[in-house]
Amino acid sequence: MASQNTPRLASASSSLGEAATQFLLSLHPEERPKAQQEVYKFVRWYGEERLLSGLTIPEVANYAEHITSSATELARKLGIIKTFLAYVYKQGLTRTNLAVHLKAKKTPSKLSSSSKQYSQRAVSLTTQGYADLEAELAALRNERPRVADELRKAASDKDFRENAPLDAAREYQAHLEARIRELESTLRMATVMDEKQVTSHKVDIGDTVVLRDLASGEQTNYTLVDASEANLTKGKISIASPTGQVLLGREKGEMVDVKAPAGILRYQIKDIKHQ
Questions:
Q1: Are 222 and 205 in contact (CB under 8 A)?
Q2: Pick the residue with more confidence: 32 or 7?
Q3: CA distance 57 to 102
Q4: Left (φ > 0), alpha (ψ -120 to 50) or beta: where does 217 sit?
């Protein structure tokens, strides 16, 4: 994605924010908008002033843990960040190519006993959430033939030692099947929440919370849902997530603090929209 004619950054002590700006400027104008949102999310998570030389492998390896998306969306988002990390490595700003350590959340093929207990717990979904999960499951099932075809094509290359397409196809197929199993289990155990009477002004599951970032002034909407319904791209966050836990039980006008590697992110609850 990056242009080969882009000038190198002057200093190996560049901040994450500086490197992100340089990377985005190196992209073709048509590619830039697609990458900008994800790169800036990555930068904000670790801190705009954070030195690239201070980023560690464990930190980067765990970045995917706070992204809640479908397998396809997660792969796309991580692909953008990997390209960014590979770029800064080529520019000599990091000693290690951190891109190779950025991986999707692992989903074991066999559930552990704790995972089995989790999959069998009661799941409360909104009406829209149940419909969204059903639609995602149908889409992923329809994806199976295409993925299988890509796997066959990649396997036709007999040089398995450096067959990156084959490895990528296998990894994607594993994530696809794991997500299908997860959705099937969730829908099987789920109950759809009834529209509740508003008896409290406090944030509860199913509510949409309007937050204002006290540092940037930006406004964000989050809907609090069960972990199985969470989808950050649609503004749905799990009640078990750090932000979800902080918001539950709060009232309009309150200030809340969310912990991130960059430090404490402060928000004000501007509004609560009950289901």
A1: no
A2: 32
A3: 8
A4: left
What residue type is 207 in one-letter code? D
| CATH code assigned to 208-273 | 3.10.50.30
How long a stretch of residues is the chain? 275
Residue 220: which pLDDT band, with cuts at 50, 70 and 90? confident
Rounded to 5 degrees, φ, ψ at 191 are -120, 140
CA–CA gap between residue 42 and residue 19 (Å, rounded):
12
Q: Any idea what the Cα angle at residue 36 is, between residues 231 and 239, rounded to 5°?
A: 20
- Which residue spans of the chain are classified as CATH 1.10.150? 16-101
Dump pLDDT digits (tens) for 153-200: 777 766 555 556 667 777 788 888 888 888 888 888 888 876 554 456
Residues 113-192, CATH architecture:
Orthogonal Bundle (1.10)
